[in-house]
Amino acid sequence: MENTSSKIFGIRAVIEAINSDATIQKVYLQKDLKGSLFSELNGLIKEHKISTSFVPVEKLNHLSKDNNHQGVVATISPIDFYDLETLVDEVLESKKTPLFLLLDQITDVRNFGAIIRTAECTGVDGIVVQNQGSAPLNADAIKTSAGAAFKVPICRVNHLKDAMFLLQASDVQMVAATEKTTDTIYDIDFTKPTAIIMGSEHRGVNPSILKMVDAKAKLPLLGEIESLNVSVACGAFLYEVVRQRIK
C-alpha cells in the first residue's frame, strides 16, 4: 500500500489528480482565488470532501518552491488508505476478537505517528481517522511511526460516527477514553471485539460521540497533572487490551 509522498501544483494539475482518484491529503488555496477553473476545482473538492486551507501566497510559494502554482498546491498522501467497510469485513472473517482504534481529530502529527507505532506493536487491526480536522499522515508522522504507517491499515471517513455505526452493527464494542466517567480501564472487558476511541489533544472525545459509545474509561492519575499526552494514554489503553487478552 505504499507510494511516494509528493506535492502537485497548478489548478489543472490538481483537478486531474482528483479526477484520477489520487489520494489527496490536503489542498492549499490562495485567498480570494477566482475564475471558472477555480470554480471547477472547488466543486470537486466539495464533492470529494477533501481537506482544504485558504492561505497567503507566501505559503504557496514556500510549498511549491516558488514554482508556478497558480494559487493551488495539493499534497498527496504517502500511503494509500483502506476502505473501512472492506477492512472490517476482512478482519471479522479472520479474527474472533478484533481491535480497532478510532482517533477523534488528533491534530499533532507526532502524536499521530507515535499512536500508529504503538498500534502496530499491540496488534491493532485498523485505525480510523476523519477527513477533516485530523493530523495529516505526512513525512513527520511516518517518521515518528518508525514505518508502522505502512503496516497498520488506516482508513479515512467523512464522519467518525459512520465508522461507529458500522462497527457496532458488527458487534464491536465502542470504548471511549475520557475523564468523564468513574470507570477505569481496569473495569472494562477488553476480551470482546473492541474499538477504542481517543479524543483530540485539546477537548478530548467529542460529546456527541460520547453519547454513542458502549463504555467509557479513564486512566487513574495519582499526581497533580490532570491528564496525559494522548499518545501515552493511548499506549496505556492498548496495553491493557494486550494484558487481558494474553492471560
Jot down its keywords.
247 residues; alpha/beta; 60s Ribosomal Protein L30, Chain: A; Alpha/beta knot; 2 domains; six-stranded parallel sheet; four-stranded mixed sheet; 9 helices; 10 strands; disordered N terminus
Brief write-up:
It contains nine helices and ten strands. The chain is of the alpha/beta class and 247 residues long. It folds into two domains: 71 residues, Ribosomal protein L30/S12 (60s Ribosomal Protein L30, Chain: A, 2-Layer Sandwich), CATH 3.30.1330.30; 162 residues, 3-Layer(aba) Sandwich (Alpha/beta knot), CATH 3.40.1280.
Secondary structure elements and pairings:
Layout: E1 6-9, H1 11-19, E2 24-30, H2 36-48, E3 52-55, H3 57-63, E4 72-76, H4 84-94, E5 99-104, H5 109-121, E6 126-130, H6 139-144, E7 154-157, H7 160-169, E8 173-177, E9 194-199, H8 207-210, E10 215-217, H9 230-245
Parallel strand pairs: 2-3, 5-6, 5-9, 6-7, 8-9, 8-10
Antiparallel strand pairs: 1-4, 2-4
Helix pairs in contact: 1-2, 5-9
Structure write-up:
With 247 residues, this protein is α/β, with parallel strands linked by helices. The protein has two domains: 6-76, Ribosomal protein L30/S12 (60s Ribosomal Protein L30, Chain: A, 2-Layer Sandwich), CATH 3.30.1330; 84-245, SPOUT methyltransferase, trefoil knot domain (Alpha/beta knot), CATH 3.40.1280. The protein is 36% helix and 20% strand. Helix 2 (36-48) links the parallel strand 2 and strand 3 (52-55). It is elongated, with a radius of gyration of 19 Å. The model is unreliable at 1-5 (pLDDT under 50).
